[in-house]
Design a protein that fits this description.
Length: 85
């Protein structure tokens, strides 16, 4: 299992469209991927789950991944959330 803290760098924060993109990215990987913010833990592949948490630019969240492609998943998700694309 890999865990990493990420500071959200997307200019718009995570509203509906950016959340949908995050779910699409996470769903490409076989690993289980979760987002932790505050006391909430949500499956990053669940659009409904991800819509229940509010994340804004500058927020620190923890991403965890467990599975055969966890390192690649963490790198791609981190790149997206930091706004590195």
């Amino acid at each position: 299992m890999t865990k990493k803290q990420i500071k959200i760098g997307l200019a718009s924060g995570l509203e509906a469209r950016p959340i949908a993109m995050l779910v699409q990215i996470a769903s490409q990987f076989e690993s289980s991927i979760y987002v932790d913010i505050g006391n909430k833990r949500v499956n990053a592949k669940s659009i409904m789950g991800m819509m229940t948490i509010a994340m804004d630019t500058g927020d620190e969240i923890t991403i965890s991944a467990d599975g055969p492609d966890e390192e690649t998943a963490m790198a791609e998700i981190g790149k997206y959330l930091r706004g590195d694309n």
